[in-house]
Design brief:
It is built from four helices and four strands; from the N terminus they run αααββαββ. About 30% of the residues lie in helices and about 20% in strands. α1 packs across α4. The chain has a domain of about 90 residues. The strands form two sheets. Strands 1-2 form a two-stranded antiparallel sheet. Strands 3-4 form a two-stranded antiparallel ribbon.
């Protein structure tokens, strides 16, 4: 156990920094209808609840609000809009894991990596040797039960073979 008596060491300052990042990004209300301004009305309590649940390991994200977005080619796709509190929790996780995770990526990996983007890689002619790995978990029957791994999938990208 940590000095706080919590199983996960998450600094309260990190939750506040995550909130500031979420606020600067803006965004719509989630399924709970709470806007960033409404979240701010009870900011100290809202951030404490996020910190307490995350550091104790009892945080579970709420459902997302489904918003239909028109496609350029016609039709629609569904965009999931998380609640403000969940966006803060996601940002905490991002800030915690990104420094350790980013160095694992190859230099030619661009998608979802700051300050890179998939569009910034259009002039590069690198061949990625990334391996696709997917692990599926069964939802636990109770909060005290860990998720159970039910399937693992791994394959190389097309055109790449390990030698």
């Amino acid at each position: 156990m940590r000095a706080t008596g919590k199983p996960f060491d998450i600094e309260k300052k990190r939750v506040y920094e995550a909130y500031k990042a979420v606020k600067s990004n803006g965004g719509a209300a989630g399924v709970d209808g709470q806007t960033i301004e409404q979240f701010e009305a009870d900011l100290k309590n809202n951030l404490y609840k996020i910190w307490n649940r995350m550091s104790s390991g009892s945080y579970f994200p709420p459902p997302v609000r489904a918003v239909p977005i028109p496609k350029k080619t016609g039709g629609q796709r569904i965009l999931g809009v998380p609640t403000v509190a969940d966006r803060v929790a996601q940002m905490v996780v991002k800030h915690v894991i990104e420094p350790d995770l980013d160095p694992v990526f190859l230099p030619d990996s661009y998608g979802y990596r700051p300050p890179r983007s998939a569009s910034s890689s259009h002039n590069r002619r690198a061949i990625s040797t990334t391996v696709l790995q997917l692990t599926l978990f069964r939802e636990p029957k109770s909060p005290s039960e860990p998720p159970e791994c039910i399937s693992r999938f791994s394959r190389n990208k097309p055109g790449f073979s390990e030698s």
